Amino acid sequence: MQILPSLFTCPICRKPLLRMENSYRCWSGHSYDLSAAGYIHLLPANKMHSKNPGDDKAMVAARTAFLDAGYYESLRRALCSIAADLCAGKEDCTLFDSGCGEGYYTFGIHNTLRQSGVAVRTAGIDISKYALRKAARRLPEGEFAVASAYDLPLMDESVDLLYNVFSPMAREEFLRVLRPGGHLIYVVPSARHLWEMKGLLYETPYENDASRADYEGFAHVGTRTVRETICLTENAHIMALFGMTPYAHKTPKEGIERLQALETLETTIGFDVHIYQKQA
Predict the structure, then answer these.
(1) Residue range 226-239: mean pLDDT, rounded
(2) Is residue 20 domain-shared with residue 70, that is, in the same domain?
(3) pLDDT at 46
(4) Does 201 reside within a domain?
(5) Which of 21, 46, 59, 82 is the most buried (most CB within 10 A)?
(6) Based on the structure, what is the number of domains in the chain?
(7) Residues 146 and 20 in one domain
């Protein structure tokens, strides 16, 4: 039986985990089954707020179809380019995706580094087991776990490159797991992201707060912007995009009905990709 060191740690004793054929185990004897889909569960029961936290199966399926249709490919290309620049000349890199979802961005970044000759080890966490099923199947050589960004199952200073795409900013945990000089890539929507969609949903649409935040322990070293217009050609994709946004929880019924009546939608997408470096 092949036994490999894992990037993950035991959520009970914090010791490193060993990756076996069908399970993960630590030296203290704690064991975690590897699911048939290829992920493990490292979120303790006393830290779960529901039986099945995170996005459900239908939401994950809709978002996967939307992303696989290529509407956000420009963002993935930008994230891959940043990884290639930051890891240029390196022999190896440990990549971690906090809130990895279905692994759409994780897969692209991992493959970009591998194709550039970097020996990359990749792990990702999310609180939705349904999303992780997709991620583990998309990137079998990666490691994926149900876990919280505020209590990462990772060793101190074990990560070179940490991505956070539309997920919670867990500053203290990100600082803990990044190596000195390691980089955090943080993606947020720009001021007029989905502006035309918002014009349909609300009588008076508002711009997002796109002001850059500074975080103690990190130096901001740059921002890349992604801006383009996309045309959604299926109502299912329109509603999937809507479901991926915070607007799904605070939109008047009339606005939702206007969106449901559309077969096509042309709208602006915009992202600010902030690059931070952990200070020594």
Answers:
(1) 96
(2) no
(3) 66
(4) yes
(5) 82
(6) 2
(7) no
Please tell me the pTM assigned to this model: 0.95
As a whole number of angstroms, the distance between CA 226 and CA 39 comes to 31
Orientation of helix 253-260 relative to helix 235-243, angle to 10°: 150
- Report how far residue 105's alpha carbon sits from residue 94's, in angstroms, rounded to the nearest whole number: 15
- 143-146 sheet: strands from edge to edge: 40-41, 143-146, 119-126, 92-98, 159-165, 178-189, 265-278, 218-232
**Which residues form the domain of 13?**
1-34
What is the C-alpha to C-alpha distance for residues 31 and 47, in angstroms, rounded to an integer?
A: 18
Residue 204 CB coordination number (10 Å)? 6
The answer to whether residues 53 and 183 belong to one domain is: yes
Q: Model confidence over 108-136: pLDDT tens digits?
A: 999 999 999 999 999 999 999 999 999 99
Distance CA 58, CA 16 (A): 34
List the structure tokens of 208.
């997002």
Alpha-carbon distances of 216 from 97, 98, 106, 174, 275, rounded to whole Å: 21, 19, 26, 11, 14
**What is the pLDDT, as a whole number, of residue 1?**
61
d(Cα 101, Cα 132) in Å, to the nearest integer?
A: 6
Are the CB atoms for 205 and 136 separated by under 8 Å?
no
> What would the pLDDT profile of 44-96 be if each residue is shown by its tens digit?
876 655 666 678 898 899 999 999 999 999 999 999 999 999 999 999 999 99
